[in-house]
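Example record

The entry below shows one chain as it appears in the dataset: sequence first, then C-alpha cells.
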Amino acid sequence: MKTRSVAVMIAFLLAAGATLGVFLYVRGVKHNNATSAANMTTVIVSKQDIPAGTKLDSLISSGAFTTLQVPNDAVISGSVTDLSQLQGQTTSTFILTGEQIATARLQGSTAETGGALGIPNGYEAVSVSLEAQRTVNAVPQAGDHVVVYATLAQTSAPAVGAKSGPETVIVVPDVEVLANPAGAGIVTLALKPQDASKVILAQTQGDVYLSLLPPNANGTQQPAIRLGDLGKGSK
C-alpha cells in the first residue's frame, strides 16, 4: 500500500513539474514575442509596381496594398503607416513592390524625395536591376555596405603585352545600400558621381554582381581577375 502511495505521489510531482515547465515556457514565449513586437513598426507597402502619376484610391479599393513589419531603426523618414494616408493621393514618383512608401512620393508633399532615401551629401542614388543570385539572394538591406563587381568581355584589341579575354573587376569597393525592396529585384545604391557613371557603364556593358560586406568592415580595391588567374591560389 505504501509503495502504491509513493508511486502516486511521484506521479503527481512529475505531472506538477511538467505543468510548471510548460507554464514557464509559454510565459517566456509570450514575453519574447511582446519584446519583439515592441521593436517593430507596421508600414504600408504595395503588392505591385506603381508608376508616377497614379491615383491611389482605386488601388486601395482593389486591395493593392498590404502591411509589413519592419524594425524600428529601419523605418524610413515619412513612411506611410496607415492606408488613410494614401486616400485621395496621387504618386509623384515610381513606387516599387514591397518597398516602404514615403509621403515624399505623393503629389503635393513638401518633403524632399531624396531625403526619404537618406542620400548622404555628395552622393547620388542609382538603382540597378539584378537577379537574386547577383545580390546575395536579396539579403542586403538599407544601411548595409556592398562591393560592386562586374565581369566584362574584351570589347577592343588589348594593349601591347596585355592579356585578352573577359575579366572580373571591382567597380566600386564599398557602397552603401539605400533600398532593396523584397522581391523587387532592384537595389538602390549611394554613389559618388564618378562611381555612379562606372556602375551604369558596367551594367550596360557587362554582368554586375554585389557582395555583402560584414558589419563595420571596409571594402578594398583588388586587381582584376582573368581566366588565367582561376587556377592560382588566393593571396
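Notes for this example: The helical segments are 2-38, 57-61, 113-117, 193-205. The beta strands are 40-46, 65-71, 124-129, 145-152, 167-179, 186-191, 206-212, 225-226.
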